[in-house]
């Protein structure tokens, strides 16, 4: 049986994502399609514009058979580590074919870039751009991820299937930008309008101004003296956009700053992350009958959790922190909602 996998953020879910899942079914014909999905926060350190429940349901409606989580701590990483942790989760689910959207049809170029990146050691705290530019690689943002997918798929013995993106379809980035600018968007009734950094910033600013720098340095991703710049900018700027604009440098990119700031809010210790620097875990978010049948077919002893208390203790703590933080600005139930069991109606 063929299990195909997709790594997704769906921030928010849009027609480009639906096109990808539909094309996989049409071209690959998998027996089961598994989506590993970022949860409350994205790889760029942005709050999710849709709740985990909403994203999961939309993924199932669009063709996913099984949706599993990539927890926020493993999501908020540079492209190198985001790809690694997501593929570890898919490997645990016995996925043998990784499918992903690509901005280029030049598969050979992606493979050559992946081979170059194999020569370097990625740094978790470092941005996608800096890791890639170290070898003079200048692909688009989605192809930076595609290159990382190729690297780790090869490492874990997965086949790959790049699918050329339909450039006529609106991107998630543009959708978010237009929505927060006040322009109506398709399905924007599903969006969480409060999920924007402007709302989180007062909490972050308080932490930066009142915490001992040594404490800040103990949190994951706080490296290279970034805490000093964040503290300085927090003293000077009372609103998020001004803080961010002045904090960005060639060393500290927008995504790097956003990820680091969210880790500070979640208070994830470096020592804990170092002790749990892999994610061979299936955290079920939703499934249809095919997905549930696939789960039952997995080898005995496969780490599968469909309830919060079935996760390792450290993950219970991290997921609760992420859920609670996100819940400050969305009307969600505390804890981990019951897994969605989905069946498409005719």
Query: How confident is the prediction overall: mean pLDDT?
Result: 91
Q: Topology as H/E string?
A: EHEHEHHEHHHEHHHHHHHEHEHE
Domain module count: 2
N- to C-terminal distance? 26 Å
What characterizes the major β-sheet?
8 strands, mixed
Tally the helices: what do you get? Answer: 16
Structural class: alpha/beta
CATH topology of the largest domain: Rossmann fold
Contiguous low-pLDDT stretches (5 residues minimum) are none
How many individual β-strands? 8
How would you sum up the global shape? Answer: globular
**Quaternary organisation:** single chain
Provide the CATH superfamily of the largest domain.
HUPs
Strand content: 5-15%
CATH domain class name of the largest domain: Alpha Beta
């Amino acid at each position: 049986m063929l299990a195909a996998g997709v790594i997704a953020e769906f921030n928010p879910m849009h027609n480009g994502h639906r096109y990808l899942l539909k094309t996989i079914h049409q071209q690959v014909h998998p027996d089961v399609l598994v989506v590993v999905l970022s949860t409350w926060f994205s790889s760029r350190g942005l709050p999710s514009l849709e709740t985990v429940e909403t994203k999961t349901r939309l993924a199932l409606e669009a063709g996913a058979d099984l949706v599993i989580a990539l927890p926020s701590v493993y999501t908020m990483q540079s492209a190198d580590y985001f790809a690694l942790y997501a593929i570890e989760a898919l490997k645990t689910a016995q996925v043998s074919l990784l499918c992903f959207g690509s901005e280029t049809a030049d598969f050979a170029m992606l493979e050559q870039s992946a081979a170059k990146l194999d020569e370097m050691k990625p740094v978790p705290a470092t941005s996608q751009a800096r890791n890639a530019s170290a070898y003079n690689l200048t692909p688009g943002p989605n192809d930076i991820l595609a290159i990382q997918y190729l690297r780790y798929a090869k490492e874990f013995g997965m086949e790959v299937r790049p699918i050329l993106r339909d450039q006529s379809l609106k991107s998630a980035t543009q959708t978010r930008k237009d929505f927060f600018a006040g322009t109506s968007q398709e399905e924007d009734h599903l969006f969480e309008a409060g999920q924007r950094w402007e709302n989180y910033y007062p909490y972050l600013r308080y932490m930066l101004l009142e915490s001992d720098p040594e404490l800040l340095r103990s949190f994951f991703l706080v490296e290279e003296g970034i805490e000093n710049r964040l503290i300085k900018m927090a003293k000077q700027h009372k609103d998020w956009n001004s803080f961010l604009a002045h904090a960005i440098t060639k060393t500290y990119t927008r995504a790097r700053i956003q990820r680091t700031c969210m880790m500070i809010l979640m208070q994830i210790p470096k020592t804990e992350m170092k002790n749990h620097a892999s994610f061979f875990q299936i955290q079920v978010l939703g499934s249809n009958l095919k997905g549930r049948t696939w789960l039952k077919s997995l080898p005995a002893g496969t780490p599968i959790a469909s309830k919060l208390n079935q996760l390792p203790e450290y993950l219970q703590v991290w997921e609760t922190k992420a859920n609670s933080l996100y819940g400050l600005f969305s009307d969600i139930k505390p804890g981990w909602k019951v897994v969605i069991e989905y069946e498409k109606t005719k």
